[in-house]
Amino acid sequence: MQIVIVSDTHSQNEILECLEKKYKDAYAYIHCGDLEDDPRFYPNWLIVKGNNDYYGKFREDFRIRVGSHRIYVTHSHRCSYLYREQNLVRLAKEYGCDIVCYGHTHVSKIKQVEDVLLINPGSARLPRDGKSPSYALLEIDGDKVEAKIIYQEDWDF
């Protein structure tokens, strides 16, 4: 099962439609916050509230089950700057999740911490890590979990 993950589009949301077309059979489309638009315009997307989301009703966070895996999704702006990863791992364990998707930092990252896979797709508009805009693709096949960051130079849309 493929899960498309994007974050921090900051009102430049055309990419969402492009991703839906490219991954039309995806199991889920996740936006980790800072959409800066009304989420009702994106009915196929699971969207959490970012620190810049004021247009419409958003969930602060959510959890979804994909096969035997549970995914926790948050923007992470309420997590400590210095201890963000530790806080995310703690929250994931509290919620019984083994995967966390988060945004806010505009820095793409995939990192295993203890038994929790952390995925930050970076920003699809304004990256802060010196890299190009990006999104993430998560593939789950039974117990096998693979995540990768896809940068703008590799986009074919």
UniProtKB/TrEMBL annotation:
Q: What class of enzyme is it?
A: hydrolase
Checking InterPro entries in the record gives: Calcineurin-like_PHP_lpxH, Metallo-depent_PP-like, MPP_YfcE, Phosphodiesterase_MJ0936/Vps29
Any matching Pfam family? Metallophos_2
Q: Which GO terms describe its molecular function?
A: hydrolase activity; metal ion binding
Keyword Transmembrane helix assigned to the entry: answer is no
Q: Which domain of life is it from?
A: Bacteria
Cofactor list: a divalent metal cation
UniProt keywords (A-Z) are: Hydrolase, Metal-binding
Enzyme Commission number(s) from the entry? 3.1.4.-
- Tell whether Metal-binding is among the UniProt keywords: yes
Tell me which residues make up the Calcineurin-like phosphoesterase domain: 1-142
What family classification does the UniProt entry report for this protein? Belongs to the metallophosphoesterase superfamily. YfcE family.
Q: Name it.
A: Phosphoesterase
